[in-house]
Design goal:
Helix 2 packs antiparallel against helix 3, helix 3 packs across helix 4 and helix 4 packs antiparallel against helix 5. This protein has a three-stranded antiparallel sheet. The chain is built from five helices and three strands; from the N terminus they run βββααααα. The protein is an alpha+beta fold.
């Protein structure tokens, strides 16, 4: 295969790998992507670089779920309130749900280790104990699904 200059190399075990650098609060960090096919690694590398250009890069190795929730509130939701795309009361309610329900139970976990099972377990537990409280099942379902990166549509 001719050299393409894209940083993807073939390993001795037959897999492909690509290295790239991300900026973290502690400084630059090298990340490695592995895959069985060249196109697979190329696609992952392009996605990682595109996310870096959008500013969606973070160091998930040491990031706690609570810290991510705080940054999600401040970096994603506050600008929506400032732009008039979200009501301030919605932001306050979401912040209350995060601080009172999600962070006490899941905030200490590393984000990369958090599984769907744990989120589903919390959802089931909260839906049983808070069925008559202001946090309704539909609200809880919405909050569990909103673990996506910032969307400014």
């Amino acid at each position: 295969m001719p050299a393409r200059g894209d940083g993807i190399t073939k390993r001795k075990d037959g897999r492909y790998m690509a290295c790239y650098t991300i900026q973290t609060p502690d400084g630059p960090k090298r990340k490695v992507i592995y895959g069985r096919k060249y196109k697979e690694v190329e696609k992952k590398l392009n996605e990682a670089r595109a996310n870096a250009d959008k500013g969606l890069v973070f160091d998930a190795d040491n990031l706690k779920a609570g810290d991510w929730m705080d940054s999600w509130l401040s970096d994603c939701l506050k600008p929506l309130v400032a732009a008039g795309k979200m009501a301030h009361s919605t932001y306050v309610r979401t912040e209350g749900i995060v601080n009172n329900h999600l962070k006490p139970t899941l905030g200490h976990r590393k984000l990369k280790d958090l599984t769907r099972v744990e989120v589903r377990r919390l959802y089931n537990e909260k839906s049983k104990t808070l069925s008559a409280a202001p946090l309704t099942t539909s609200t809880l379902r919405f909050r569990c699904r909103s673990r996506r990166p910032c969307e400014t549509t």
